[in-house]
Amino acid sequence: QDAEVVRTRDPERLAECDVVVDVGGEYDPERHRYDHHQRSFALSMHSLQPSKPWTTKLSSAGLVYHHFGTQILANLLGQPEDGPVVTALYDKLYENFVEEIDAVDNGVAQTDGEPRYALTTHLSARVGRLNPRWNDPEQDTEVG
């Protein structure tokens, strides 16, 4: 709730952070490092939770959702984490929202015949508009 959000790729600043998401080049949930940008990274919801059917490679958003999604939903709904309401909502939110983020972030084509995931939000385009253009002389992501 009172966290400071820092946008940086500076390893020294990242080392000072309690949680690092989508930068830093490491996935280490015990140290709260949730980046998927390693050549060897190939985790999916199914590989982390074999009872889940989704094989789309996870992005950092999917990693955070995997680790904290049920806890957040349970807190918001006042329901137990392992209850049927939280379980059903967790699955529906992944299938209809987070999987799209994972797929788009990892460059997974939506179709090659049968659609691989649902495209429902265009969230990636919205996030992209927050970043400076590649040819913008002012590349400071802190400037808003």
From TrEMBL:
InterPro entries according to UniProt: MYG1_exonuclease (IPR003226)
Pfam annotation, one family: MYG1_exonuc
Domain of life: Eukaryota
A cellular component annotation (GO) from this entry: cytoplasm
UniProt family annotation: Belongs to the MYG1 family.
Full protein name: MYG1 protein
UniProt organism field: Asarcornis scutulata
